[in-house]
Amino acid sequence: MVRRKLHFHNSSLRHPASPDGMTITASDYRIYPTYRRTVTGTFTGDLKVVRITDDRLIFPYDGAPMIGPFETALEAREAAARKGAEVVAADLLNPEY
Predict the structure, then answer these.
(1) pLDDT in tens, 2-29
(2) For burial by CB atoms within 10 Å, which of 16, 74, 86, 92 has the most?
(3) Which residue range is the domain that position 61 belongs to?
(4) Can you name the residues that pair with 32 across neighbouring β-strands?
């Protein structure tokens, strides 16, 4: 079992994201890619994407697709990292507040 250690900063020390003025960049996101082993011996990617300006969980969301399965843990983790980059790019184009 893989356990992620997530460290969030106190949001009261940061400026909140505002739709009318603050520019959000890719550095305003944290991507946590990892993997899980299935009972069949394959691996699936596991991903958490957080926008740190407002501590909003962007991924996973309800109905999020499974990443994988893959033959190796490295493939699963790399696929999760690619998916995280896609999620960040999509949120930069159309952010939800």
Answers:
(1) 666 655 555 444 444 445 556 789 999 9
(2) 92
(3) 25-93
(4) 48
